[in-house]
Specification:
mainly beta, 3-stranded antiparallel β-sheet, 1 helix
Length: about 150
């Protein structure tokens, strides 16, 4: 179901720590999904609501009966920020870069944050269509975004 785009260029420079699954295992299915190039979000088995980031209970009905479902990996830019002053020293030479908040219509409009690949000075608009791009590393696969 996921779009299958993989970047061969690491967006993160040397010295930048990679995200890691939480020790309590809450987000482990998400990270296992990314390794398989599947974009997973939680869905409540009781009320059908989608949610992301992962939680132990449903945000809407407080049920603990949650499952993981696959999104198509296509979304819309809900918000974006062109970062001119990186917050991590490893990104000092990388600015500007674009961070997007992507809304996933096929997953209850949940939102995910990620980098928008391509020219950091490209013209981005709220509502632009984007799709997931997988950035594979040894222990983790990152979710990035590109405009379509």
């Amino acid at each position: 179901m996921s779009v299958e785009h993989v970047t061969t260029v690491s967006y993160l420079p040397e010295g930048m720590p990679l995200p890691a699954p939480m020790p309590d295992g809450l987000d482990a299915p998400f990270w296992e999904g990314t390794k398989q190039h599947k974009l997973l979000v939680q869905r409540c088995k009781t009320c059908g609501s989608f949610q992301f980031g992962p939680e132990w209970i449903c945000h809407k009905c407080r049920s603990g009966e949650l499952s993981w479902v696959e999104s198509s990996g296509r979304g819309k830019v809900y918000a974006f920020e062109r970062v001119w002053h990186p917050v991590h020293k490893a990104l000092k030479e990388r600015g500007p870069y674009l961070i997007v908040l992507v809304e996933l219509p096929d997953a209850g409009n949940v939102r995910m944050v990620g980098n928008l690949l391509g020219d950091p000075q490209q013209d981005v608009k709220i509502g632009d269509s984007v799709e997931v791009v997988w950035e594979d590393h040894t222990d983790v696969t990152l979710v990035q975004w590109q405009r379509i």
